[in-house]
Amino acid sequence: MAHSSTREISVSSNGRVSKLAFTDTTFSTETGRETITPQVSCWHNLFRRRVKIELIETSIRNVVAATCAKGILDVQYLVPRGKKRHLCLKHIQGTVNTDDERRVKEWCDALMDLAYQGVTRCKLLRILINPHGGTGKAGTVFTQKVEPILVAAGCTLDVTYTAYANHALEIARDLKLKYDAVVIVSGDGLIHEVLNGFAQHEQPERAFCIPIAPIPAGSGNALSLNLLGYEDGVDPSAAALNVLKGQQMSIDLFSFTQGTRRHISFMSQTVGLMADLDVGTERLRWMGEFRFVIGYLWGVFTRRTCPVQLSMKVVEDDKSRMVSTLQSRRANSTTIDSFGGDDKHPDGPDGSTDEWVTFDKPILWFYAGQGPYVSRELMQFPVSLPDDGLIDISVQGVMNRRKLLDAMEGAEEGRTYWTNSNHYFKASAYRMKPLGTRGVLVVDGEQLPFEEFEVSVHPRLGTVLSPCRQGCYAADFRVSDERGSK
Ligand SMILES: Nc1ncnc2c1ncn2[C@@H]1O[C@H](COP(=O)(O)OP(=O)(O)OP(=O)(O)O)[C@@H](O)[C@H]1O
Prior knowledge:
single chain; alpha+beta; PH-domain like; Rossmann fold; Tumour Suppressor Smad4; 3 domains; eleven-stranded antiparallel β-sheet; four-stranded antiparallel β-sheet; 11 helices; 23% helix; binds adenosine-5'-triphosphate
């Protein structure tokens, strides 16, 4: 096995010598810091001077910028800090001897080549911030956490704070196709708007090729969780790093048709208990994601069934087979190059999608969509793949209150998938008809009329930035039964 060699330089920083080094995978700084400690034992030498070595090591991917100009070396990088291990921007500066400057410049170039392997540097970014998203802190999140990282990386930022609902849709509809990415500092609602703006663009195919990069600043940040994982998915700095270093990944999008209206949906459609809790807890927005827990407990208390007629074009209904497909995809990280228009879905058993199947058991809630997480508390689609050309459908049959409460445990790791009352399908399309007038329909976190609708899949139409390999979400599904065994 080839060992990556270490490339090292020394600079003088505040009268001290700092050693900076990198390998193929890590970047490190080693700085001597003088400390003065009182001595008890020796009367003559009351204080002792010591040099403490401070070593910081981080992934090479976390290096944001390295420059050497006019005898000054400057390296900016991210390190995990604190209990949550959220990334924090640090920088080290030092003077370089004139004789050494050329060598240090070459060192910076080599470091930057490794840190930005395979991605464009100094991106042109369209940034949209919803000042009312989540607990209303999106502006602060941007200025304090995200902007410093993007600016340090030499990106050009074209920033708009949305002023009203559908403002982001209008911007996306008229977007110039020159941007490297659209960065969305908010929750999932603004992402929904941008994708629907792309659908109305005069060159929609090209607009959909502009990658979207979410920065979590809403009350639900499902796309961020799905792309970056359970921990990094709520870290705005990790999301900013994904803007710089993420690879373009294709995702399926859905056509949602209701009467004469058509929307693009990228995440989920839900009715029943889960939709009621989303809309019913709007007034508790200040609580952040905790409002969904309160809403669920209310749903357990009322335990109302949801009167709908559901029909689907089912491609797969075997849970074990869906898990095997997910595992082999994660192991091989296969990229599916083409789904064509031939109705063949490579991850399905036989691509038999022509027949409509009706589901007629009573249900508590219905969830259809993609991406394992729909919120931090719920991994609703644990076997979801970003580009299999199918929509995951999870139908929750009736359970008693005790079981509903039990279902909260392990919900964030997808345990309910294995319960007998949870019916799980992969389909190419489905239709839903409400059988009453009272109910709530939520699409990508936003409420729509509780009326008949139909959903079909646009394979690989959307583009996102992702730190993961093509064809995989960050979240891993490790639970192998209802009890939570792994
Ligand atoms: N300036 C604004 N004033 C009022 N509403 C806005 C403004 N800008 C955007 N919106 C609307 O706010 C809605 C909610 O935004 P978003 O979903 O991004 O945040 P969130 O609701 O906190 O997150 P989530 O959707 O995950 O709950 C969007 O549908 C958007 O139309």
